[in-house]
Write a structure and sequence with these properties.
By secondary structure, this protein is an all-beta fold. The protein contains no helices and twelve strands. The structure holds FE2/S2 (inorganic) cluster.
Length: 107
């Protein structure tokens, strides 16, 4: 794993504190979340029946799916009701004013 795995996405200023943004990075649907001064990246596809999260509700570190209310921890992708169900998480970092998302070829 190296810096080569990080791919530029949106400008940092496009994602305010306490907000979410849907992006596509190398063909992956990724939900970016900025909370507590950190940026988190998650698969933007609910494991229930596939809704995307950007119109859901973000409260603290919990995002609620807009379709049927499943709740996930944005820090690790875990489903609140069953820790065995987990969204893919993507590491993010800010570089040169842009949010970069780590996309590994094997994920
Ligand atoms: S699709 Fe997300 S809770 Fe049903």
């Amino acid at each position: 794993m190296g810096d080569d795995d990080f791919v530029a996405s949106v400008k940092e200023c496009e994602l305010g504190e306490g907000h979410m943004k849907a992006v596509r990075v190398k063909g992956r649907a990724v939900l970016l979340v900025r909370q507590g001064g950190e940026v988190f990246g998650l698969s933007n596809c609910c494991p229930h029946i596939g809704c995307s999260f950007e119109r859901g509700i973000l409260r603290g570190y919990t995002v609620m799916c807009p379709c049927h209310g499943w709740k996930f921890d944005v820090r690790n992708g875990q489903y609140e009701e069953n820790k065995a169900i987990c969204l893919v998480s993507y590491r993010c970092k800010i570089l040169n004013g842009k949010i970069h998302v780590e996309i590994k070829n094997d994920v």
